[in-house]
Amino acid sequence: MRRTQKPQTMPTELNTETRPKFSSNVFRALLYSVRRKVMKIVAVILTAVVALEHIGILVLEMFFWDHPVGRRIFGMTPEVSAASATLAANQGLYNGFLAAGLIWGLVSGRRELKLFFLGCIVIAGVFGAATAKSSILFTQALPAAIALVAVLLADRKS
Fold first, then answer.
1. Which of 62, 76, 88, 158 is least surrounded by Cβ atoms within 10 Å, i.e. has the fewest?
2. Distance between CA atoms of 68 and 75, rounded to whole angstroms?
3. Rounded CA separation 16/19 (Å)
């Protein structure tokens, strides 16, 4: 004689003992990995923006200081721009070195280079704001400080 089997019904809810478990540790590790990659991308973008800003400053100070464009941007008279053109070219060269250092850090991927040059820009921006023009704090020091924090957060060890 043939045994009849009862049809199995699907439960509407899985009980906790039979439900597949997704490890919260796996989820946390995945989330951490995604956050870390996003933060690295943000840090690279911010550092590149600061480097581009300093290339722009190099061009303005070295080539357009004693030009209507430079005089308008820096708010100078033709006499003041002509008298300070050599000094401005020197400043522009220093800004170019800062940009070159950041680009070196970006290309090589060396965290310590990015931190060093961003730190130099923050210090120079604070000094410039205290001694020359207060807006330097917001145009140079602040972007570099934000990039510096992003680099620190992107490459932290824990």
1. 158
2. 10
3. 5
Task: To the nearest 10°, report the CA torsion of 118, 47, 102, 93.
Answer: -80
Domain boundaries, the chain: 30-154
- 151 near 119, Cβ under 8 Å? no
- Please state, as a whole number, how many other Cβ atoms lie within 10 Å of the Cβ of residue 91: 20
**Contact of 112 with 124, CB cutoff 8 Å:** no
**Residues 1-47 pLDDT 10s:** 566 665 555 555 555 555 555 567 787 888 888 888 999 999 999 99
Q: How far apart are CA 92 and CA 61, in angstroms?
A: 5
Please, where are the H alpha helices in the chain?
24-63, 68-74, 78-83, 85-108, 111-131, 136, 142-154
Nearest to 100 by CA among 85, 121, 74: 121
Cα gap 19→22, rounded to integer Å: 9
